[in-house]
Amino acid sequence: MKLDKVIAVRTSKTVYKDGDRAIKVFDADYKKSDILNEALNQARVEETGLPIPKLLEVGVVDGKWAIASEFIKGKTLARLMEENPDKLDEYMNLFVDIQLDIHSRKAPLLNKLKDKMNRKISETDLDATTRYELHTRLEGMPKHNKVCHGDFRPSNVIVGDDGVNYIIDWSHATQGNASADAARTYLVFYLKGEVENAEKYLDLFCEKSDTAKQYVQKWLPIVAASQSVKRNPEEKELLMKWLDVVDYE
Q1: Which of 173, 159, 172 lies closest to 105 in space, CA to CA?
Q2: What are the strands, taking DSSP E only, across 77-228?
Q3: Element housing 119 (H / E)
Q4: What is the pLDDT of residues 32-87, one digit of tens each?
């Protein structure tokens, strides 16, 4: 693996281009189990037939763990949205259609979304009463087994030069309820300050999937609690708002 050209820098990881490969190199203190789980997620999702970069290799570069995947030539949907604001509606429709395709797939060996959310709620700094209410709400939500991306955002879709729309970054993938995945995407837009896009996205998702908006919104306090585990001070106030405004049943 050669680490010559940096193509993306994210928290605790850097992505390099090496010929026809994209190599994601993790910081030295990144948990080995999380890295191997990400590679396993990618392999399992690849088996569903979804258009994703092929997993090529997992190894160690300069003492750091790395995942090598097929390099995809193209532009992210996020970049296209920025460059062509007049086509936002067209791109948002495409974005939702891709997510619905993800949700139409099954990968029985992926971790369960409910298990992950229960664990995240337990890891929060929330008081015991709020944690109990969230666990109870989560337990009452319908159990599904659809592939859920877990961090579906426009920057994780590459519109390939070959005409194929590729989905990247499967580190948070689980199987579970599609509306939880939609609530997570809505929150992603909102946390970036893209409130109008958040509402546009949610309206489109609910329309195309024939899902009641209230049903997706019931997941918001759960995904907000999960996000709060990252303890990003810039997000805390908004996430706490999602938790405060909920009337628990």
Answers
A1: 173
A2: 146-148, 157-160, 165-167, 174-176
A3: helix 113-123
A4: 999 999 999 999 999 999 999 999 999 999 899 999 999 999 999 999 999 999 99
Please give the torsion angle defined by the CA atoms of residues 11, 178, 206 and 137, in that order, rounded to the nearest 10 degrees. -90
pLDDT tens digits for 136-146? Answer: 999 999 999 99
- Alpha-carbon distances, residue 62 vs 20, 22, 27, 145, 212 (angstroms): 21, 17, 11, 39, 50
* Contact between 1 and 66 (Cβ < 8 Å): yes
How buried is 150 (Cβ within 10 angstroms: 0-12 exposed, 13-18 middle, 19+ buried)?
Answer: buried
Cβ contacts of 63 within 8 Å, gap of 6 or more: 28
Element containing residue 183 per DSSP (H, E): helix 178-191
Supply the DSSP symbol for 63.
T
Q: What is the pTM of this model?
A: 0.93
Walk across the sheet containing 74-76 and list its strands.
74-76, 157-160, 165-167
Compute the mean pLDDT over every residue in the chain, rounded to the nearest whole number: 94
Residue 249 has pLDDT above 50, yes or no: no
